[in-house]
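Note to self: the last two entries modelled the partners one at a time, which told us nothing about the interface. This time every component goes in together.
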Amino acid sequence: MSSLIELRGVSKVYEGNEGRAALDDVSLAVEAGELTAIMGPSGSGKSTLLNLVAGLDRPTKGQVTVDGVDVATLSEARLARFRCERFGFVFQFFNLLPNLTVLDNVLLPAELLGTRGREAATKARDLLAQLGIADREREHPGRLSGGERQRVAIARALINRPAVILADEPTGALDSRSGDRVMDLIERLNQGGQTIVLVTHDAKVAGRYAGRIVSLRDGHIEDDARLTSGSGAASDLFRVGSSGAER
Amino acid sequence: MSLRFGILGVLAEEPLHGYEVRHRLESMLGGAWEVNVGQVYLTLQKLERDGLIEPVGARGDRRKLAYRLTAAGRGELDRWLDEPEVEPQPLREGIYLKLLLSGRLGNGNLGALLARQRRAQLQRLHDLGDLERRARREQREDLALLVRGAVHHTEADIKWIDECAGGLGFLERRNRGGET
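The predicted structure of the combined assembly is written out below.
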């Protein structure tokens, strides 16, 4: 069976970049249900990778398949619909429409697929309730805190029941406590079976939450690490402090 | 942790015997590490010798002998509490030595060495995350803060490894003897 997301020998060269590849012969498979973090310094190819997976960009070489569909074979119109059905997006700066209410922001991707109406509204309200912001549905985003805005964005990302959530630095604009709460939510979604690809430069976020960390450098995969839970006893993590007895 | 001041600290709350001291310290630290009971008794003896604690009641079975702080002990504890902790900065000399040697010995792939090291540190962040979650579940905000300290140190280690990876060309030239 093929993986949910698969990149085979993918390269991307942008025009005017002296022929240098932003992504150079990258192969990667993401299985359903994984929480995969993509890490790397700026310019390492993280955003290029995300854009290629989401079909926002097309590879110069190689193949990107999502759910068995070769993204490059889709027309622009079909690709837009495919994107809307399969992916939910969470961005660093939320990207909510300021003149729409919270509820209408969440409903937007459903409307793009033509599934407006009572059913979608019920689903949107369910999601807002799950994310603890049911009482904010009539507010405009400008009146919400950063953490609340990101939760609205997560509800919006989930409205079409996407196969994959693509989260690009979702805690980048939040203080650490709000960031932790947003990541706790993302982790809970993953525990419920949601596949998540998380792009972050923050090792703390990746290390704590992801089960797999793909590190990029200069357009290549430098490391692909699977982390295990429950392996670290406290006594292995801290050196037993005993100084003082000898004094 | 300095066991000496840890003991002075818990005895400042109330007189305790050795076993209780150990138990109090361990529960204070939330099981983050074990306190060796033998070291506790040894330290109690030294603190008594230095006049910083004194036995309460008659001296009989040493396991049941409770101690309390003396005025000098209280002064020593207060002085220590007021002092900033400026310990020697731990350097990652182990991995640095590996980087230098594995290149010189000609059997090293420095990039792979750093990637392995980085992976170990990411796993550590994962483990620390588990520990922090457990602390918060048990409403041990104090212990969660202790773990956060370890999280930040580990993050710094990863940043350093990334900088080493960025400077690999230099390290490799140096190892080949091209630069000294």
